[in-house]
Design goal:
Elements: E1 16-22, H1 30-43, H2 47-50, E2 53-57, H3 59-70, H4 74-80, H5 83-89, H6 110-120, E3 132-138, E4 143-148, H7 157-164, E5 174-175, E6 181-184, H8 186-189, H9 193-203, E7 208-214, H10 225-228, H11 233-238, H12 241-245, H13 249-259, E8 263-266, H14 282-307
Parallel strand pairs: 1-2, 1-7, 2-3, 7-8
Antiparallel strand pairs: 3-4, 3-6, 5-6
Helix pairs in contact: 1-4, 1-14, 5-6, 6-7
């Protein structure tokens, strides 16, 4: 890793650097936008101006790229996740008239790529206004891959956004600009806070690092242990095996132990929000919005104090 690429990000006058970390969670990532919009209103500052480094996984990675790459405020982010745009990203389902055990991904991904091109155009990661990283997984080399503005500046933002959000089952594996094949990084770290902390320590040597981590809701619906002992692949799929694999509470506990008071996490059980990552019904979108507002009611004051805004 070339440390010289970090120099443009250094601001000696600021000793504490703030990291914003986004979980993956499909459409539930909108709750983070709702929460952060309230932070922008309360502080009078854009999220871009408050934080020094942005990191995310999957839909959270797309949020991070929008902020660091386009200087998008939360009103712009809400427009990005509009119902019309969501319909584009989930168009042409292969499952509409097929069996539950369809061999193809649920969506063909063409609408999603068109939407990403509309926003990010030909911009590369190295053109980001502030350091940003998104997590993916290299299926051929069988290892996590961090795509960032400083270690892979030539990768297009569209490629990075497509790869980090290529959730297995929903979207196909993505070939990016350097010829590697990537899928959603949530399979290894849906909560990338620890990665954000580690990367920020390298980018901002000698600075105090504080990480603000925002989730996408946790599915706490009980699974009957006895019944599950009889399940095969189909029943596990029906009972959210992907959600179990994306569970991030362990990473949250480790991050809290490691960073102590320099780590703050906002999240909650999903409650009435659908655990499935692609439910764009009006009812579910309203519930996601309410979840974000409930987060603000619970964590808003603590957040402003933690960030000193």
């Amino acid at each position: 890793m070339d440390i010289r690429r970090f120099f443009k990000y250094l601001t000696p006058s600021k000793k504490t650097k703030l990291v914003l970390s986004f979980d993956g969670g499909g459409v539930r990532a909108i709750a983070a936008v709702v929460f952060l919009k309230q932070l922008e209103i309360a502080s009078g500052k854009k999220i871009f101006d408050i934080f020094d480094f942005f990191i995310g996984t999957s839909a959270g990675g797309i949020n991070a790229l929008n902020i660091a790459g386009l200087e998008a405020g939360c009103f712009e982010l809400e427009n990005f996740w509009s119902k019309e745009n969501l319909a584009k990203t989930m168009s042409k389902s292969f499952w509409d008239n097929a069996s539950f055990l369809q061999t193809k991904p649920k969506y063909d991904g063409k609408g999603k790529r068109e939407l990403l091109l509309e926003y990010f155009k030909d911009q590369s990661l190295g053109e980001a206004k502030k350091p940003v990283a998104v997590l993916a997984y290299d299926v051929e080399n069988r290892k996590p891959r961090l795509l960032s503005s400083y270690s892979s500046p030539g990768i297009k933002m569209v490629s990075a956004a497509s790869a980090t959000s290529a959730a297995p089952i929903y979207y196909s594996t993505q070939e990016i600009d350097d010829g590697t094949w990537l899928i959603d990084g949530g399979i290894v770290a849906n909560n990338p806070s620890l990665l954000g902390y580690s990367e920020a320590k390298k980018i901002f040597p000698g600075c105090e690092i504080k990480v603000f981590s925002i989730g996408a809701g946790i599915n706490r619906r009980k699974i009957n242990g006895y019944n599950s002992s009889k399940w095969g692949a189909l029943n596990w799929f029906r009972h959210d095996i992907l959600g179990i694999m994306l569970e991030s509470s362990m990473f949250d506990e480790i991050a809290g132990d490691l960073m102590g008071e320099n780590y703050l996490r906002v999240n909650s059980p999903t409650g009435l929000v659908n655990r499935r990552m692609d439910d764009t019904s009006d009812v579910n979108l309203e519930r996601i919005h309410l979840m974000g507002m409930e987060w603000w009611s619970e964590f808003g004051q603590e957040t402003t104090e933690f960030l000193n805004v």
